[in-house]
Amino acid sequence: MCGRYYVDDETAREIEKVVREVDAKLRKERMGDIYPSQTAAVLTGKIPGLKAEEMNWGFPQYQKKGLLINARAETVLERKTFRESVLHRRCIIPAKHFYEWDSGKNKVTFLREDEPVLYMAGFYNRFQEEERFIIITTQANESVKKIHDRMPLILERQELEDWIYDDNFLEFALHKVPVQLIKHQEYEQQSLF
Fold first, then answer.
1. Is the pLDDT of residue 193 over 50?
2. Which CATH number goes with the domain that contains 115?
3. Phi and psi, residue 190, nearest 5°
4. Is residue 152 part of a domain?
5. What domain count does the chain have?
6. Could you tell me the sign of the dihedral formed by the alpha carbons of 100, 175, 160, 132, in that order?
7. Is 168 helix (H, G, I), strand (E, B) or coil?
8. Over the stretch 53-106, which tens digit does the pLDDT of each residue have?
9. Is residue 186 part of a domain?
10. Which long-range contacts (CB under 8 A, 24 or more apart) does 103-108 make?
11. Average pLDDT, the chain
């Protein structure tokens, strides 16, 4: 599960390298930790070429309070709530890193060693005159598995336009194993036993 991620100035500069159009207000985009329900930059393909836009994180739940913030890659095409969005409204969520919490409730940061940005696969839809996005998760790879059994579906930079525009790539991407990440923890609880 991905319930919080981080965006910094370097992330914003990298976004400008991969998109053709950046809204002026996104240049002042929210930096720091991004929580569900907050506005964040996502990359879409509404115009020819990638475009950065602001959207809120999370779909409203119809019967309950709260938000749906993640969708499982394994079932996203089967779920009525998600199917049309993932087929027709895919997006990319750029981040410096994301967080998970270990069994001792300590925050653990996951990031790429080889790239300055994680590109997380997602999709969006319109609810009450605003667009909202969800992050797709998949089974955790070896670098995340000891902390959590789920992780964001991470795309490579050269896969970004394929994710947005290529329907044949969708099936491949939903089954891919994400790149290995590095783990950083401010401190780790030690046990005497």
1. no
2. 3.90.1680.10
3. -95, 145
4. yes
5. 1
6. negative
7. helix
8. 999 999 998 777 889 999 999 999 999 999 999 999 999 999 999 999 988 888
9. no
10. 104/189, 106/185, 106/186, 106/187, 106/188, 106/189, 107/185, 107/186, 108/147, 108/183, 108/184, 108/185
11. 88
DSSP 1-46: ----EEE-HHHHHHHHHH-SEE-GGGGG---EEE-TTSEEEEEE-S
Residue at token pair 């491949």: 172
Helix (H) or strand (E) holding 150, with range, is strand 150-152
Strand partners, 188: none
Judging by DSSP bridges, how do beta strands 118-127 and 130-139 pair with one another? antiparallel
Q: What is the DSSP string of 91-145?
A: EEEEESEEEEE-TT--EEEEE-SS-S-EEEEEEEEEETTEEEEEEEEEE--TTTT
- Give me the half-sphere count of Cα atoms (radius 13 Å) on the Cβ side of residue 179: 17
Q: Please report whether residue 193 resides in a domain.
A: no
Cβ neighbours around 161 below 10 Å, total = 16
How does pLDDT run across 12-35, given as a tens digit for each residue?
888 887 876 555 555 555 678 999
With tokens 């990298």, the residue in question is: 14
